[in-house]
Amino acid sequence: MPKPKNTYPSWRRRLAQRAVHAGWAWVQRTGSVTAEHPGPFRFGALGTGTRLAFPLGTVFGEPWIHLGAHCIIGEQVTLTAGLMPDLDLGPEPILRIGDGVVLGRGSHVIADTTVTIGSDCYFGPYVYVTSTNHSYDDPHEPIGKQWPRMEPVSIGPGCWIGTGAVILPGARIGRNVVVAAGAVVRGTVPDHSVVAGAPARVVRRWTPADGWQPPLRTPAPVPIPEGITPQQLRALADAATGETAARPAGAEAEA
Predict the structure, then answer these.
(1) What Gene3D superfamilies has UniProt attached to this entry (predicted)?
(2) pTM (2 decimals)?
(3) Catalytic member of 21, 66, 70, 134
(4) What is the mean pLDDT of the chain?
(5) What does the alpha-carbon distance between residue 82 and residue 94 come to, in Å, rounded to a whole number?
(6) By C-alpha distance, which of 115, 83, 77, 121 is closest to 96?
(7) Which pLDDT tens digit goes with each residue over 173-183?
């Protein structure tokens, strides 16, 4: 009869794993970019409390990139200004990111011409924003060799951009807009709206006169009361879980 193999790693492997993870955590902390520790990057502006997580994606044209305060730039996020490195883009910034912006892991913001992202915008992972698109006017020339088209992009404050969304050149997104995951946005998007699809279209909108139309299908979340402790929150969660589990059993007994 074969002897059972020990499925747990040896003490040497456990120590090696801990050392690797501790070393990688140190590398991430040391490699991140902040105003106090900008490393080799010389951004046009890098606000207080803003951090670019390590490893970074492609970053160039940083003198023309202005980042506001208290932003979180996830790992492998690409930020570029201009078509290529080492160009003189003039006196004005090309890429402006407001205060409190979160760019999710693997996102790209490609600002060959002006891109503006308002304050308090939250981006899911792998969002792609670009002010440039390939042109295909000449049918006899490879598309990659034709001069691209460029149009400014603006995203208003307070927006939520879902995972994998694509924001195309010329997009003008209003304030407090939800862009659904995987949406492809072009043109103008009004304030306080929800857009989805490819190409994206408005599927819900709020106005002062009519509220949300179509109406929301779920109730608004209830904010956590001030002064409540983590222990009280856990107790409430445990009580809610117990009530949920008890209801089906009671219903079956009545049936």
Answers:
(1) Hexapeptide repeat proteins (2.160.10.10)
(2) 0.82
(3) 134
(4) 90
(5) 8
(6) 115
(7) 999 999 999 99
- Is residue 102 helix, strand or coil? strand
Contact, 155 vs 114, CB < 8 A?
Answer: no
Q: Which domain holds residue 95?
A: 42-136+144-170
* Residue 19 domain flag: no
Return the minimum-mean-pLDDT range out of 79-88, 205-214, 238-247.
238-247
Q: Report the alpha-carbon distance of residue 52 to residue 247 in Å, rounded.
A: 47
Beta bridge partners of 184: 166
70 part of the active site: no
| CATH number of the domain residue 109 falls in | 2.160.10.10
The 3-state DSSP class for residue 67 equals strand
CA distance 234 to 154: 41
Chain centroid, CA 253 distance in Å = 48
What counts of helices (H) and strands (E) characterise the chain?
A: 2, 24
Would you call 120 exposed, middle or buried from its count of C-beta atoms within 10 A (0-12, 13-18, 19+)? middle
In a domain, 56, yes or no: yes
With 90 as the cut, is the pLDDT of residue 237 above it? no
